[in-house]
Every structure is written in C-alpha cells, then in structure tokens.
Design a protein that fits this description.
Blueprint: H1 12-18, E1 24-26, E2 29-31, E3 38-42, E4 49-54, H2 58-73, H3 82-98, H4 100-111, H5 115-136, E5 144-145, E6 153-161, E7 164-168, H6 174-187, E8 191-196, H7 202-214, E9 221-225, H8 228-237, E10 243-247, H9 250-260, E11 266-270, E12 276-279, H10 285-297, E13 309-313, H11 317-330, H12 349-364, E14 368-371, E15 387-390, H13 397-400, E16 407-413, H14 418-425, E17 430-431, E18 433-437, H15 441-450, E19 455-458, E20 473-474, E21 477-478, E22 491-499
C-alpha cells in the first residue's frame, strides 16, 4: 500500500484513515466485496496511488439492496416517529461538524480541491444539509381536498416514503453530493444504497462510519464503492429498487433511464450544464469580473453549473475579458493541502486529458487564448491552467459541450433587444443555471424570466443553500435537489376518500 504523497501536509489521523484497509458498508456492517477485488485511489496532485478500496459488483449490490429492502419492509425505520428520524439526522450533522477538519483534508487529498475551500464550503454545507432535512422529517404532510362532486365525502392526501432508493453521486463534491442524496431520503423514511464515485470514495466511506456511530438501524443506509458498469448499472436496474437518484453527466443519465425501465422505477437526474453569465454594460464591473471569474474557476471549473459561457456587452467586453484573464493569471495552482493553493488539480488523468482536449479543439477551430492554455507548467499532477477563450462561435465544441474544467468562452453581444440576448443564452441543450449582471432591476427580472434554466443568479453565481431547490431544464435533468422540492423525489402521494 502506497503512502500519502502529501504526508507532511496532512494530519496523522487523516493519513491513518486514508491508508487503512477499507470496506463497503452493508446492513450496518463493514464487509469486503464478494469478489475480494479492490481498485486504486489516486492523489490528483501527484498521480500516485494513496490507497485501495473494494470493487463492489452485482452480488454486493444485491446484498445491499436486500438489506435496504428488509429495513424498509420489516424494520422500524419507516415506522419510527418522524422526530426520531430528525434527531438521528441532526446527530449525524453534529458528528460531521465534529470532524470538519478531517473531512476537509480527505476531500482535498482525494478530489484535489483546496483544503481551505473544502473547510469553508463543502463540509459546512454538508452539515447544514443534514440539519435542514432533519427539520423536514416532522413536516412532511398531505392536504385535505374539497371534492367538486359534493360534500358527502372526506378526501385527503398522504405523503409516504417511496421505498428503497438507489443513489449514485459524482466526484466533484463527494461529501456534499452524498448529503444532498442521503439527507432527504432518510428524512422521508426511505432506505438507501449509495454508490460513491470511483474517483473519490474516501469521504463517503468516512461518512458511513459516522452513520453507524450515529445509530441508524442496520440496512437503512448502505454505502458501496465501485465502478459504473460493475455497481452503478446493476443498482439502477435492480427490481427491488423503487427509485434511482443520479447526479452526473447527461450521457450517463441516459443510461440510467434505460436501466431503470425494467420495473419502471422512479428516476431523478441532476445532469450537465453549459451555464451562461450575461454582463450588461451598466453592471458594477469590478463585481461582475470577480463574480464571473469565480463562476468558472471555482472548484477547478468542475461544477455542473459553472459559468462557462461569458456574454459581455461589446461596450465593456474588452474590460471584462481583460479582468477575467488577469484573475485567471493570478490564481495560484498547487496541491490542495498547500496553504497557498487557490486552485488544485483536476480529479483524474482522464478528466485532465478531456479538458486539455477541449482547449486544443477550440484553438484548432480558431479560438484565441486570452489566458491559460493547454500547458499547465506544473511538473506533476492533473493541473490545467484557468483558461479564457475569445473569438469563439456557437458552432464550436467548446461553446456547445460541457467541458467540466476551468475553461470559459467569452462572447460579445451588441445592442440587440433582450429577447435576442436571452435566445443566444438559451442556445444549448442544457438548462441548469445562469447568472445576470446588471444594476437595472427590471432588466434583471425580465432576463431571469426568459432564461430556460433551473437556477438564475443576479449579480452573483454559485450561491447554494439547503433551502434552495437546484436542478435543470432540458437535458440538465429531471426533478430538483434540496429545498422542499426534493421531498417529491422520495415520496409517493396517496389519495384517501371516505364516504360520509
């Protein structure tokens, strides 16, 4: 077993956890995979192997689903008091918060992101999600309905847990995405099987330890490590799974839909994006430049809602491009645990090659590199410089396809009417998010209304809260995460009518 390559920068507690013999979590116990196979986990800052985790396959998925099925059909979980579910979720939040620094280190070592960012964003937002959903556990209710047929009936609806939920999460926010999935499912009384991203399994395995410590009944939450083909596909297709919830690429989302068709299980999808940031000439330029730079470069650009298409009015276009390019050039790239780090490496060699390929494709099609480019200048690790491309058009791959890296395409627009600007922003198969930068409040509302996106930010970007629903239009997905809206993902509505 290889040792941590960043050992001088990581705490001994975290190093001991990362390099331990890992197990999957099924029916309240940590067990080896049925095959005994494992696969390596890499440090994105160096490319070195830091540990190995079990490679769960169909037999392990079946064991986990059966455990979740028993826990739902025969166990106490769906029938315990909602207040007790809420207390357990709150207890889990307290445990995560207690280990905040450790989780931030794990995320940095495993994913590559700056420790400083994980400590103030990923982990606190995870804690908040568990606490927010703990409150919802006692507030899931139906309604009484006056029937138009007359007064001789009493009718009402109930919201009941959907059952066994299969959940598959991505690698860009490993811990936070686990919380987005686990917290509402448990608040609603469901049981679950969570498949972690193979690139970043470590924080999810640590979370499984805290789930056991918090006292959740066996089988309520099961956690697997494995690949999409070996574990994700059989989970999505399993006949005893009532619902599949997936966050990831649109391409894989389509495969999930096909796999789920066997027993017509419910499906929710949070998929890709190609989010526009629109800067009008009256915007506060300093704020717009800093905000649109953060919109694309936050988390190494590995955000489904990254502001990867920058539309700036021609009167201010040069200033905006110059400002964002200067911000890109000043970003300090380093391993995530380096105190100077402002941008870490991409998550994997595969992602590195994909992003560099897009930059090279844009250049080959005539794009101009205003900042960054395909050569990182960093000797080791999967580092890609924050890149600004100009002279792009809507026919280029870099403008139409999700890059999922720190690459923004800047495009000027003129004095066309608002409808034409909105039409250009909507010219994509995605519809996840957008931001509008203007001091004209009427214009901001008008553009927000016209944008075909699940989230529109005004004079900000990448603002998240457990109370805000998040999800997309078009090929950016089905359903919503977070807020009260997510409860619809994990409940069935039952209508009851009584003759009086």
């Amino acid at each position: 077993m290889a040792t941590l390559t960043v050992d001088p920068l990581v705490s001994r507690r975290t190093a001991d956890f990362v390099t331990q013999a890992h197990r999957i979590f099924i029916d309240g116990r940590f067990v080896e995979s049925a095959s005994g196979k494992t696969f390596p986990v890499y440090n994105p800052a160096t490319g070195d192997v830091i540990t190995h985790v079990p490679e769960a396959e169909a037999e392990d998925v079946n064991r986990a689903v059966l455990a979740a099925r028993r826990a739902f059909d025969e166990g106490p979980w769906p029938r315990i008091l909602p207040s007790e579910r809420g207390r357990l979720l709150w207890r889990l939040a307290d445990l995560v918060e207690k280990h905040l620094d450790e989780f931030a280190e794990i995320e940095s070592v495993d994913n590559g992101k700056p420790y400083s960012v994980a400590r103030v964003a990923d982990v606190p937002l995870t804690v908040d999600m568990f606490r927010y959903m703990a409150g919802w556990a006692t507030k899931i209710s139906g309604t009484t309905l006056p029937l138009s047929a007359g007064y001789d009936f009493h009718s009402y609806t109930m919201r009941e847990p959907i059952g066994v939920v299969g959940q598959i999460i991505p690698w860009n926010f490993p811990l936070l995405m686990a919380a987005w999935k686990i917290a509402p499912a448990l608040a609603c009384g469901c049981t679950l099987v969570l498949k972690l991203a193979e690139q970043t399994p470590l924080s999810g395995l640590r979370l499984a330890q805290l789930i056991a410590e918090a006292g959740f009944p066996p089988g309520v939450a099961n956690v697997l490590t494995g690949f999409g083909e070996g574990a994700g596909a059989p989970l999505a297709a399993h006949d005893l799974v009532d619902k599949i919830a997936f966050t990831g690429s649109t391409e894989v989302g389509r495969l999930i839909v096909h796999a789920a068709a066997g027993n017509l299980k419910k499906v929710s999808l949070e998929l890709g994006g190609k989010s526009p940031a629109i800067v009008f000439p009256d915007a506060k330029l300093d704020e717009a430049i800093a905000g649109t730079a953060s919109a694309i470069f936050f988390n190494q650009g590995q955000c489904c809602c990254a502001g990867s298409r920058l539309y700036a009015h021609e009167k201010i276009f040069d200033q905006v491009v110059e400002g964002v390019s200067r911000a890109a050039a000043e970003i300090k790239m380093a391993p995530g645990l380096d105190p100077s780090c402002q941008m870490g490496p991409l998550v994997s060699d595969e992602q590195y090659r994909k992003v560099v390929g897009y930059i090279e494709s844009g250049i080959a099609e005539g794009a101009h590199v205003a900042a960054g480019g395909p050569i990182s200048g960093v000797e080791r690790g999967y580092f890609v410089r924050p890149t600004v491309l100009t002279n792009t058009n809507s026919n280029m791959k870099v403008v139409q396809e999700e890059i999922f890296g720190p690459v923004v395409c800047a495009v000027p627009f003129g004095d066309e009417d608002v409808e034409r600007i909105v039409k250009r922003a909507n010219d994509t198969v995605f519809g996840l998010a957008a931001s509008v930068w203007t001091q004209n409040i009427s214009l901001a509302h008008k553009v927000a209304r016209g944008l075909r996106a699940g989230t529109v930010w005004v004079n900000c970007h990448n603002v998240f809260d457990a109370s805000l629903p998040f999800g997309g239009y078009k090929q950016s997905g089905w359903g919503r995460e977070m807020g009260a809206e997510v409860l619809h993902n994990y409940t069935e509505v039952k209508a009851v009518t009584v003759a009086l």
